[in-house]
Specification:
Subunit structure: The complex is composed of two ATP-binding proteins (CysA), two transmembrane proteins (CysT and CysW) and a solute-binding protein (CysP).
CATH class of the largest domain: Mainly Alpha
Subcellular location: Cell membrane
Pfam families: BPD_transp_1 (PF00528)
Order of helices and strands: HHHHHHHHHHHHH
CATH topology of the largest domain: MetI-like fold
Number of domains: 2
Shape: globular
Strand content: under 5%
Function: Part of the ABC transporter complex CysAWTP (TC 3.A.1.6.1) involved in sulfate/thiosulfate import. Probably responsible for the translocation of the substrate across the membrane.
GO molecular function, one term: ABC-type sulfate transporter activity
Length: 282
């Protein structure tokens, strides 16, 4: 029996890998892939001519334009504010830090309808923010600006929670080393910090954008929902369902789905390219 040895089996905390993998794949197939496949098949069932006619109708195009422009504005705001907030939480110690850290997750936990009602009350013409803004000639409620505000509120945590742990892992000693070599603050951020957080920053922004284009509950209370002005694509899908126009609802929903998938695919490709670029730099 010399030389005979049992094959080494790596110990797992949770045994039963085949069972766990099978349950995971079944769940993914039934809960995620099957409904999405049914949606796409329903949209394609009407034929390409009608599909394109629904997708290119003036009201649908207007709804997509409002949705994507407001989502872009909200994502740009969250990219700047979310990065600054993640930096403050990762780099500084101050009274109330734990409370501020917990408040970041409020949009995750808060029902979107409650968020919409709160924002509508806040930005109403007699609200805390709406009244002074109205004196300045700025109207938020029932305008695309209100839609962007609701999108920014609900998607902010994606940027903060993606960037904050990466900043905490970098550590301030890296900045101190660069500073000791004579680099300016801006150059340290541009050449040292930002390349390190770029994949997480990009992922956070893409997730925030995807969440914004699919947001519904927080927007309908503040948007006014006027066709060709403040009507978003998700609301138009809901309106088509109420009209029992299921093919039109499926077409609009499929377009939103494909937009989100395309964005996530491009984001993953950019992240992979960045990691290879950084690897060659190392």
């Amino acid at each position: 029996m010399a030389g005979f040895s049992l094959p080494f089996r790596k110990r797992r905390i949770l045994p039963g890998f085949p069972l766990a993998l099978g349950v995971t794949l079944v769940y993914l197939g039934i809960i995620v892939l099957l409904p999405l496949t049914a949606l796409v098949l329903k949209a394609l069932d009407i034929g390409w001519d009608q599909f394109l006619a629904i997708l290119t109708s003036p009201r649908t195009l207007s709804a997509f334009r409002v949705t994507f422009l407001c989502a872009l504005a909200a994502t740009c705001f969250n990219a700047i504010y979310g990065l600054a907030l993640a930096w403050v939480l990762a780099r500084y110690e101050f009274p109330g830090k734990r409370v501020l850290d917990a408040l970041v997750d409020v949009p995750f936990a808060l029902p979107t309808a409650v968020a919409g009602l709160a924002l509508a009350a806040l930005f109403a013409k007699n609200g805390w923010f709406g009244a002074p803004l109205d004196h300045l000639g700025i109207t938020v409620i029932f305008t695309p600006l209100g839609i962007a505000a609701a999108m920014a509120f609900t998607s902010l945590p994606f940027v903060v929670r993606q960037v904050q742990p990466v900043l905490e892992d970098i550590g301030p000693e890296v900045e101190e080393a660069a500073f000791s070599l004579g680099a300016s603050d801006f150059r340290i951020f541009r050449a040292v910090i930002f390349p390190a957080i770029f994949p997480a920053f990009l992922a956070g922004c893409s997730l925030a954008f995807s969440r914004a284009i699919g947001e519904f509950g927080a927007i309908i209370f503040i948007a006014g929902n006027q066709p060709n002005y403040s009507e978003i694509a998700a609301l138009l899908t809901f309106i088509r369902l109420e009209e029992y126009d299921y093919p039109a609802a499926a077409v609009i929903a499929t377009a939103l789905l494909l937009s989100a998938l395309l964005l996530l695919t491009v984001t993953n490709m950019l992240q992979s390219w960045h990691l290879r670029y950084v690897g060659r730099g190392d």
